[in-house]
Write a structure and sequence with these properties.
alpha+beta, two-stranded antiparallel sheet
């Protein structure tokens, strides 16, 4: 019985869903940048350090902007929100005021007035704990 229990814990620890949840809950996942070998010259190995992508733009507001969001294209992977609030792709914090759920989401620009609605990815809706078949009011924080 003990062997089966230990086996189940080992299997569960390898599961991506469990690992990502425990990383969020316990604050893990903040590992330093990895290095990857690029080319081998003689006895020395040239290494390139992976750098994070620089932020391409900042939204032109401070504080929160409110928008109504629904489900976007469910076949497009990632955690994103297509919104007319930004002119360039940027990461921002999105909060559902009704429940207090929040997530960091990549904002993707779309054409239209600022008062038009936004579209959330399936992964973003899961992260914000909102139903897929409803429109939801969200606050977008640029800072």
């Amino acid at each position: 019985m003990k062997k089966i229990l230990v086996f189940l814990f080992v299997v569960m620890a390898g599961c991506d869903a469990v690992r990502s949840t425990t990383d969020r809950v316990l604050g893990g996942g903040d590992a330093p940048a990895q290095t990857a070998p690029v080319a081998e010259v003689g006895t020395a190995v040239a290494e390139e350090v992976l750098q994070p992508k620089p932020v391409s733009a900042r939204p032109n507001w401070v504080g929160a902007k409110t928008t109504i969001a629904g489900l976007g294209d469910p076949t497009t992977p990632g955690r994103w929100m297509q919104t007319p609030l930004v002119d360039a792709e940027v990461t921002a914090r999105v909060v559902v005021p009704r429940t207090g759920a929040q997530a960091y989401i990549t904002l993707v620009p779309v054409s239209g007035p600022d008062s038009s609605g936004s579209r959330l990815s399936l992964d973003a809706m899961r992260a914000l704990l909102v139903p897929f078949d409803e429109l939801v009011e969200v606050e977008v924080y640029a800072d």
